[in-house]
Amino acid sequence: MPPSATADETPLRRKLMDAALELFDERTWDGTNVPEIAARAGVAVGTIYRYFPNKQALGEAVFTEAKAAFADAVVTDAVRAADPVTAIGLVWHHQVAFALAYPQAFSFLEHQVHGSYLRPQAYEVVHRLDAELVEILRAAQAAGAVRAGDPQVLLSMAFGAFVGVTKHSRASGVPLGEYDLEGVREAVMSLIGLTGPGSPDAA
Amino acid sequence: MPPSATADETPLRRKLMDAALELFDERTWDGTNVPEIAARAGVAVGTIYRYFPNKQALGEAVFTEAKAAFADAVVTDAVRAADPVTAIGLVWHHQVAFALAYPQAFSFLEHQVHGSYLRPQAYEVVHRLDAELVEILRAAQAAGAVRAGDPQVLLSMAFGAFVGVTKHSRASGVPLGEYDLEGVREAVMSLIGLTGPGSPDAA
Amino acid sequence: MPPSATADETPLRRKLMDAALELFDERTWDGTNVPEIAARAGVAVGTIYRYFPNKQALGEAVFTEAKAAFADAVVTDAVRAADPVTAIGLVWHHQVAFALAYPQAFSFLEHQVHGSYLRPQAYEVVHRLDAELVEILRAAQAAGAVRAGDPQVLLSMAFGAFVGVTKHSRASGVPLGEYDLEGVREAVMSLIGLTGPGSPDAA
Amino acid sequence: MPPSATADETPLRRKLMDAALELFDERTWDGTNVPEIAARAGVAVGTIYRYFPNKQALGEAVFTEAKAAFADAVVTDAVRAADPVTAIGLVWHHQVAFALAYPQAFSFLEHQVHGSYLRPQAYEVVHRLDAELVEILRAAQAAGAVRAGDPQVLLSMAFGAFVGVTKHSRASGVPLGEYDLEGVREAVMSLIGLTGPGSPDAA
DNA sequence: TATGAATGAGAGTTCATTCAT
DNA sequence: AATGAATGAACTCTCATTCAT
């Protein structure tokens, strides 16, 4: 999986998290059973319990790691240092790059409901990322570069639009990379009403 | 639930479908157990099996009914009769009305992954609705009223943007009705690049 | 079913006993469920409980009636009045006639184990019939007309031989009537070592 | 149980098969529930499902093993090599020895109806044994050593006579060994009309 | 009197978790 | 440290029985 792994990394723990992520993405947490995870990771069932106290903890670890990796990938120091408009372009770029590099992590995180196994504290990463992105949008609004309105809603729409495309990619079986992602970017920039320099790759 | 219910309606069957929808929305199909459904419906466990051969069939019935109700609500005869641009406005309006009237059905349908209990044929409604909406977008593109690009992707983005808002509503606990839905509509119309008469309520 | 029905006969009770006998013969008592019996009898489930307090009582009634009918058919007054050798011939004849007339009752009674639903008192008919037949054999032995040895064992063998034929008939699907029953009789008479006038139909 | 056990033997699997045979004999397959089997075998319920996919498969395994053990015990190479008359004597001897050594297996196999849980293929052993024994009787008839008539019927009678004795033994609670089995043998030999050297133990 | 929808205890089965090896 | 057979609570489903109609 992506970097930002927790400290106590181990080859087996890594294999377990990867196998679990794959299966949770395919079948959801509730729909996956522990022996399957062990089988996919190529270890015995008992081994799982040397690394995680129970299935719920494994679920939380997988979710938290994936979400943290996404957050770290999307909001980099460069994003924090940039002006709002540039930041938005960077964020978009990073988000797409993450979804391309880790499609399973992305769809596990964004196409499912996670209430059954996450304790409230697991949402901290989510909220922190949310807050940072909302702040960027707010700043962009203040600069008159982005449409008015609740920036949280703006964010939900923009991100939702992209998630919509990844859902379609997953349902159709066509890899995200084969879509016209530049077209998607332009449409979403229209959605948020962004004017000015859009693509970070632009000259 | 919404109209378009299957022929063999019965008060108890109705109560079971409603209770099941609520729980599937809260906890997913895999995360809900049969006694809970019975309890919520106020009947004994065995009663469920007088109306559905098994839990999977109940899941399919709930999903299919909700999706069909959504499809019927969104693509009405008026939509089919209208010109593309008007049709888009109507569709948007209907979709929002459905999400406001049946928030649980909407989030059950759109915030989850349903692979574990639906047989392929259950997706027929999904595909039919999809095809109709794509056709409307295609016609609008032909008329030069909507941004170019794969209409399927355009649809995924536009619908995804709205789903993003409903997700946020659900996560925050703020009812969808308290959001600035007119603002959302305008943003999404910009997303698809729609020009011309937008809101069906507009003078 | 055969005569000797219990006093409180009723058309519905009769249909229920007949349907139950058929099903118990096909699937055993444990393997038959109450709704099936109702369906076969053409009545509603609840009706069964107006005639029998529970499934076990129905089982006992069916078993007891069938066994009593068999006993009454086999040991008639004529048998009781006859000399041992003639009695044996008559008993054989009656037994075969019963198995031909009521194959389901016969195989239900003789091809199965009934321990799970009969209270000890239900075996009284069995023991009474047994005792009468054993007495006939003992008298025949005393007259030197039948092989020596425990008459109970002799009876078990002779009856078992016939049951063996009915089992084969049932397994092969060939009705008992198509077998060479006269040959069977002669063989069994040899088994018990009976000399003298054998067949009651003989000139 | 008897030898001829299937390859994948295991102490627990053995205990389960033994416990199941006992209970199926006492209460029939339909009348026995899974927790009882587990309790009798001294294991937890779940353990059963590590060795058998379901209750039906356990029933089939028990039936098939017992029947195969019986067939192997009865028709040995010595039987196949012997002349028909000697073979009949040996078969009789083996059958009695099996019933003495494994009374539960014998009565489970022969006092019950097994239709509810056996797939047709489970009857293959039954038919193979039957065919071999019928062939022996046919050869004996050809040699003029045994009564004329359908050899299948002759077999059913002879075996049925012995089964009749085991049924009585079971019902009365008197172990089979306390019966005059030599007398039983002689009677059955008369039944099939066997002349010539009877008992294999005879000088 | 007869019905059959409703019941819930108990059946068969699954699976997260433990622990002797 | 890793294993996987064993466990038993909890699941899905069945069916004997009840009772309002």
TrEMBL record, chains A, B, C, D:
Gene3D superfamilies: Tetracycline Repressor, domain 2 (1.10.357.10). Residues 33-52 bind DNA. Keywords: DNA-binding. InterPro entries: BscR_C (IPR032551), Homeodomain-like_sf (IPR009057), HTH-type_TetR-like_transc_reg (IPR050109), HTH_TetR (IPR001647), Tet_transcr_reg_TetR-rel_C_sf (IPR036271). Pfam families: TetR_C_10, TetR_N. Residues 10-70 form the HTH tetR-type domain. This is TetR/AcrR family transcriptional regulator. It comes from Streptomyces hyaluromycini.
